[in-house]
Amino acid sequence: MIAFLRNTWRGLTSMRTALVLLFLLALAAMPGALLPQRSLNAAKVAEYIAAHGWWGRLLDRLQFYDVYSSVWFSAVYVLLFVSLVGCLVPRTFEYVKSLRAKPVITPRNLSRLPHHTRSTVEHGVDEVLTEARTRLRGWRIAEHDEGGGARSISAERGYLRETGNLVFHFAMLGLVVALALGKMYNYEGQVIVLANGKEFCNSGTLSYDSFRPGLRVDGTDLTPFCVKVNGFSARYLPNGQAESFVADVEYQSGPDLESGTWRPYRLAVNDPLRTAGDRVYLLGHGYAPTFTVTFPDGQRRTSTIQWQPVDQVTLLSAGANKLDRPGVTDPAESRQTQLAITGLLAPTAVFRGTLLDSGFPDLLNPAVAVDVLRGDLGLNSGRSQSIFEVDRSMVDRGRLSRVARANLKPGQEIRLDDGTTVRFDRVEQWVSLQVSHDPTQVWVLAFALLLIAGLGTSLVVKRRRLWVRATPAASADDQGRTVVEVGGLARTDRAGYGEQFDRLAAELVRRKES
Amino acid sequence: MPVNEALSTYSDWTYGAAVAIYVLAMVFHFVEQAMQRTTAPAEAEVLVGAGGPELDGRHRDVAVPPRSRPGRAERFGRMAVSATVLGALVHLASLVLRGLAAERVPWGNMYEFGSVLCLGAVATWLVLLRRFPVRHLGGFVLAPIALLMFLGGTVLYTAAAPVQPALQSYWLVIHVFTVATSSGALLVPGVASLLYLIKVNPDRFARLAPRLPGAETLDRVAYRITIMAFPAYTLAIIFGAIWAEAAWGRFWGWDPKETCAFVAWVVYAAYLHSRATAGWRGSRAAAINTLGFAVMVFNLFFINLVISGLHSYAGLG
Ligand code: HEM
């Protein structure tokens, strides 16, 4: 049993397993680039499944649309993580030991080494060694007395390589841990805010249109701050391509909340507002028409609601303003008098016959093409409904019916059969904001920088060994001369060591000959 | 931000000229190779007559020892290198002109990205050429570059224009530049590794294999450049994450482009590991490196053109 565990552990932490796991990781990550993913676009996934029948459903069952939270992807990276730990622990011990280790003893036969020179110089052994020591500054050196007057130096450099390598792998470990913690404690929420002075406060998940909490976030203690959107402006090139988006906002957080101080900020793409440990992003924008309905009894209702762009280039938008008749308290009567104004909005109207289209994304010449529906909107039915549409089933069931249809420009109105008028007043802008919270992302960044530092070091530094042996010349007429042998070995990436060795070896000898 | 039409046109011309010069250089390289084989006997006489040293080894990767009158093949080789340098200068001019025309850095869409990538590859190749005797690789390195540039200039061509708001950031300058140049640099090891696989299979590639530099050289070249380009690529991904944090609200979101970059990165990490793993050096390492570059190319073309994600280069925009 123990043997089995040990073998498994050895197998798991071997270099070859790491290699195979790296491959598996690459392979497992790939489907996420090729198939639609729920985390990015759930609608696309549904579409894909519908279009691919049993095959689409099978992929769904195998978690191919949630690759990065799938069992198999997690399995691979957890194994890799374990393998990494298992590989780093012994290497760290060895590394610590090697910090104090001396360069290995000079081999008996230096001529066996990949690099080798041998020459005779006019100096004594001691001078040769002294000279060698100064030449080998920066190398770790050990001297050996080899008997018979011969002495040698073993030298090694490039220990930093292992340091860099360990730093790199540890940084990767840290990065994975920071990522995992981030997944626990992050949250991300999106909300649409009218850019006419409306406010948004990060007070709870209900303030958002959509909210995605981390595994350990329940939305009860979001850091409080508020944002007020005072205006939005977009600039476009003549071809309709956007040139800049800027939202003019004010915000308050921390003590400002108590004192009621608002601080201005120019919120733009690439320029999020960072406050209270959260970030606020400008994600998108669109238009919100304002309608005023005047009922026969003289009561008025004004409604401004965001409509949704249906064409991302021209910003032709669709939506529905829904309202109750004021003063109606009887539910049954209410269900007959609710109104919806629904249809299309064009920021720059172009009419094809009577069909409204948009010719440009900017608000140059707005118009709407709307149906006015009256009856039961189904708001009290308990079913949730989209703010951008009326509930079509109410129309189908005859509970909601069209009472007018018209193309309107700002200021124009239509009169309904009962004398109610619906006026199209103007168009407001809305912005969609994203609030993101990720307490560990600075850690991720720190580890990433550490990672790159370690990587750079370990790939630039090369480990080299060099030995110098000085032996008194043997024959009688060589009295006072010394045989100098130099041997060299590149422990990593041999490329380039040849020339470097030759230069060093030549220097070691040349000086002494002069 | 108006676009200067004249400068933009000059930029297009110089781009075309650079492609033509690269193609010429590539042809010179291949002529050199062809002549060295087909004219070997004739040239041998010349060389002997000129008092040249032993002939064998001449067609190795070591350049022919300098002599007063280089052989004809040798002259083609040198012309090829000169042409490549000229091509790189013209190429650089085309990028500078485009930058001036659009009043921004010239890497704001896929066409420009490809151009910078190729210049990165050529620059890497020229630096390599100074340090290693690998001129015989020239044609093989220039061929994919010329092809990429041709495709870039025809299929992906985009008129000079300002970039959309999401790209208006100094991170565009930093991130896209590092991605383009490091990817370009990785092209060279990709080619060297592919040739390595050919070289060590002389049975299957009887005609080509003997003309390539030694397997050892190919392997070393691939490794040396990869260890320079890999950290750069890593840095480029980190820059991308920093930018994504500012632009999209999260530093990593498994956008298809990000995913593919991650996969390529892991493959290159596997390459570096394989060089330190018994039984995986040599052919397997070379295959992994080739695969790494294949993923890069896939990321550039397939992901951009077929699967568009958040990365706004997509759709040739
Ligand atoms: C989590 C995934 C891993 C990645 C992305 C990764 C990446 C890398 C990279 C890029 C290098 C080359 C740079 C350098 O030398 O610092 C490297 C080297 C190395 N890695 Fe990893 N590694 C991973 C896991 C592992 C594991 C699990 C082991 C242990 C079996 C390991 C052992 C090594 C060793 C020994 C080297 C040095 C190779 C040499 O001397 O050239 N790595 N790794």
What low-confidence regions of chain B span 5 or more consecutive residues with pLDDT below 50?
Answer: 38-68, 313-317
Return the structural class of chain A: alpha+beta
How many whole angstroms does the radius of gyration of chain A measure? 38 Å
Mean pLDDT of chain B: 83
Which chains have the largest interface? Answer: A-B, 49 and 53 residues
Please state the structural category of chain B: mainly alpha
Number of contiguous helices of chain A: 12
CA-based gyration radius of chain B: 21 Å
Number of beta-strand segments of chain A: 23
Helix content of chain B: 55-70%
Q: What oligomeric arrangement do these chains adopt?
A: heterodimer
Low-confidence runs of chain A? none
Task: Provide the β-strand percentage band of chain A.
Answer: 25-35%
Sequence of secondary-structure elements of chain B:
HHHHHHHHH
With helices defined by DSSP (H or I, 4 residues minimum), what is the helix count of chain B?
9
- Ligands and ions found: protoporphyrin IX containing FE
Shape of chain B: flat
Overall strand count of chain B: 0
Model description:
The complex is a heterodimer of chains A (514) and B (317). Chain A is α+β, with helices and mostly antiparallel strands and 514 residues long. Helices cover 33% and strands 34% of the residues of chain A. In chain A, strands 4, 6, 10, 11, 12, 20 and 21 form a seven-stranded antiparallel β-sheet that branches. The radius of gyration of chain A is 38 Å and the shape is elongated. Chain A starts with a helix and ends with a helix. Chain B contains nine helices and no strands. Helices cover 69% and strands 0% of the residues of chain B. Residues 38-68 and 313-317 of chain B have low confidence and may be disordered. Chain B has one domain (5-305). Chain B is an all-alpha fold and 317 residues long. Chain B has helices at residues 5-38, 40-49, 72-102, 110-131, 138-154, 170-199, 215-247, 256-274, 283-305. Protoporphyrin IX containing FE (HEM) sits between chains A (13, 15, 18, 22, 80, 83-84, 87, 164-165, 168-169, 172, 455, 458-459, 492) and B (269, 272-273, 275-276). Protoporphyrin IX containing FE sits between chains A (13, 15, 18, 22, 80, 83-84, 87, 164-165, 168-169, 172, 455, 458-459, 492) and B (269, 272-273, 275-276).
